[in-house]
Design goal:
Blueprint: E1 5-9, H1 13-23, E2 29-33, H2 36-45, E3 50-54, H3 62-72, E4 77-82, H4 87-95, E5 101-104, H5 109-129, H6 134-145, H7 154-168, H8 173-185, H9 195-198, H10 206-212, H11 215-225, H12 230-238, H13 259-273, H14 285-294, H15 302-315
Parallel strand pairs: 1-2, 1-3, 3-4, 4-5
The structure holds fe (ii) ion (2 copies).
Length: about 325
């Protein structure tokens, strides 16, 4: 297999040189250019794994280059280097999936390296997911889940609960399968969340929370790039939306949240409540049901959640 190729674009030669030095490793090939147009040509000709772009360049703004990069080479993982003053506008680009990660200048060596390695990991995951068999999809979901020791077995259990509801609703077999894949992969965007954040026992800071809340968008992009169906991508994208519109990433409300995502969301919440988490103990089924009931219509679809509770109680 060929080495991952990382392309750096910055109008300052010395920034490129230090980035290159920091990343120079046998397993990575690094290309640099000061010219954004030349960068686009490279993207057209070569399989670039990760592109790292400076936001402020005289010939083209970094964000514009990354939007162009997305259409020329959608699979290339896009990272932005930015000054502190531009952080807000770059965050918006992250929220809509145009930028995978950003690094604030001046950066720590480890920060750049881990962002690039993370990008390479995401690129490889997309490739493995493409054309994966059903067993391999589950395996990949489990590998991603390993980064978070508190969620061991989570994706499989979420699929079990979601299918309990789907089967009782007699959903079409094709949709049933999409719900299964969507449930397995719903948290796959966590591959973009650093492990120290996933494993943190204390409350997350605002910045850490912002990173965690990107996981639905990151996951949906992985699923789309891997060629899975739009329904699967929507399940991943909307599994943290809430029925009253107070969820994320979009704040969709009620039935504008796709049914498949509403089903997986209920399964996800139920499994989270009944599992041990770093910040709270595991609840009993009965306690979890009380919480679902209390939050019905606010967090979850009221009809679906009542039906789910009926099915769970019947299975006890
Ligand atoms: Fe999630
Ligand atoms: Fe989850």
């Amino acid at each position: 297999m060929s080495k991952p190729l990382v392309l750096f674009v910055d109008d300052e030669e010395n920034v490129l040189n230090s980035a290159k030095k920091q990343l120079l490793e046998d397993e990575i090939e690094v290309l640099t250019t000061t010219d954004p147009f030349c960068a686009l040509e490279i993207l057209q000709k070569k399989n670039v794994t990760v592109i790292v772009v400076d936001n402020i360049m005289p010939l083209m703004k970094g964000i514009e280059l990354l939007f162009k990069a997305r259409s020329v080479s959608p699979e290339t993982v896009r990272i932005m280097l930015t000054g502190y003053v531009d952080v807000n506008s770059v965050m918006e680009a992250v929220n809509i999936g145009a930028v995978y990660k950003f690094i604030v200048k001046p950066w720590e060596q480890e920060e750049l390296k881990s962002a690039v390695l993370d990008g390479i990991y995401r690129y490889e995951m997309v490739h493995k997911l493409r054309d994966a068999s059903e067993d391999q999809i589950l395996e990949l979901a489990q590998i991603i889940e390993l980064r978070d020791p508190y969620t061991h077995g989570h994706c499989e259990r979420v699929a079990e609960y979601a299918l309990l509801l789907s089967d009782a609703l007699s959903l079409d077999p094709g949709v049933r399968n999409e719900i299964k894949y969507g449930a397995w992969l719903h948290d796959c965007g966590k591959l973009g969340v650093p492990e120290n954040i996933l494993n943190k026992r204390d409350l997350l800071t605002f910045e850490e929370m912002r990173i965690v809340r990107n996981h639905p968008v990151w996951g949906a992009e992985v699923v789309r790039l891997a060629g899975l169906s739009e329904t699967v991508a929507q399940i991943v994208n909307y599994h943290h939306e809430k029925y009253d519109g107070s969820g994320y990433p979009v704040g969709l409300k009620g039935s504008s949240i796709p049914l498949e995502a509403r089903i997986v969301a209920i399964a996800d919440i139920f499994d989270s409540l009944t599992s041990e988490r770093p910040y709270r103990r595991k609840l009993s089924f009965h306690e979890a049901i009380q919480i679902l009931l209390k939050e019905k219509g606010i967090v979850s679809d009221p009809e679906m959640v009542e039906f789910f509770i009926y099915l769970i109680e019947k299975s006890l």
